[in-house]
Amino acid sequence: MSDASINSPDFSGRGFDGEAQFGDFFALLKPRVMTLVVFTAAVGLFASPVHVHPFVAFCAILFIAVGGGASGALNMWWDADIDAVMKRTARRPIPSGKVTEQEALGIGLALSGFSVVFLGLASNWFAAGLLAFTIFFYVVVYTMWLKRWTPQNIVIGGAAGAFPPMIGWAVATGGISIESVLMFCLTFMWTPPHFWALALFIRKDYDHAGVPMLTVTHGRRSARNHILVYTLLLAALALATAFTSVGGPIYLAVAIVLNTLFVKGAYDIWRRDEDMSETDNFLTEKKFFKLSLLYLFAHFGAILIEAILTRMGMGGWS
Question: Which GO terms describe its molecular function (predicted)?
Fold first, then answer.
């Protein structure tokens, strides 16, 4: 056996690093993504008009987080082949040989069942059913179907990441309302420009993996156009949300500042000349991508502040 075969990661075994550590299994759950899931779900729960006992709320958010992690593990199980050829994902637990595909599948399925059942027991079965649908949508509809089939993968598939605030709201109210739909739409419309900006500066990764991202199938110019259009639509939605029951003057101030910056960033990307150096383009795209991370956290943070003030009798437009 050659040295290369000894040192190369093997999806059917442990690879060259020996036994997997707790951190390797935890990495399967995509903790960074889970942070956004937890936060938006918590905002959805707390912004609802129904009071939830703190212990019930804690358990509900924990089980929603576990469900989000289960989705991540199943996503890594299915995408192990393309993760291995993409520079951004090559160090993930499966392609690096630290965790096997079978382990990831087992963990993902077990945590999926656990999170749905216990969310139902802790809160209500409508919220649990919504969590189950979210896991199904992310794993089956997005990961297994859309991601490798259409350049609109992230547009349609982005719905999976937009469900957590609706789930949080459902934990408290047992249903869906216009407010939870608005929070869903805010995340849904944010997802395409966020991911297309990422795709612009890691396009070669998607090329090598054969993933039909918009940057690969229609080119960088088309992706830039789409980023600008979606950003303008997102800005209109975000500002309109200020005048709903989950908005208020603080949210409006945050939305004005952030959407001004976001639209400017999208415009800077749109006006880029494809003949310019990749370095100049990448800096603009990376700046926009980093701003997009702050964008969603800040908007939901403002919704949370408005909810707190409302409960104190000081929030909203009243």
Answer: protoheme IX farnesyltransferase activity
CB-based contacts of 197, cutoff 8 Å, min separation 6:
227, 269, 285, 286, 288, 289, 292
Q: Which two tokens stand for residue 53?
A: 């006992």
Domains and CATH numbers, the chain: 20-176 (1.10.357.140), 181-318 (no CATH)
Q: What angle do CA 277, 280, 286 make, to 5 degrees?
A: 130
- Say whether 49 sits in a helix, a strand or coil: coil
Cα separation, 196 vs 269, whole angstroms? 11
User: Which residues, other chains included, contact 115 with Cβ-Cβ below 8 Å and sequence gap of 6+?
Assistant: 63, 64, 66, 67, 70, 131, 135
Question: In this model, does residue 17 exceed pLDDT 50?
Answer: no
Q: Would you say 64 and 119 are in contact if contact means Cβ atoms under 8 Å apart?
A: yes
Q: For the segment 42-88, what is each residue's pLDDT rounded down to a tens digit?
A: 999 999 999 999 999 999 999 999 999 999 999 999 999 999 988 88
pLDDT band at 109 (very low <50, low <70, confident <90, very high): very high
Distance between CA atoms of residues 156 and 177, nearest Å: 21
Residue whose structure tokens are 């989705």: 71
Q: What is the largest CA-CA distance in the chain?
A: 75
Amino acid found at 305: I
Burial 79-100 (b: 16+ CB within 10 A, else e): bbebbbebeebeebbbbbbbbb
Say if CB 47 and CB 247 are below 8 A apart: no
* Nearest Cα to Cα of residue 44 among 65, 29, 30, 61: 61
CA distances from 276 to 196, 227, 264 (A): 19, 19, 19
User: Two tokens at 262?
Assistant: 């976001």
To 10 degrees, what angle do helices 31-47 and 178-201 make? Answer: 160
DSSP 149-182: T-TTHHHHHTHHHHSHHHHHHHHHHSS--HHHHH
> Chain centroid to CA 104: how far?
20
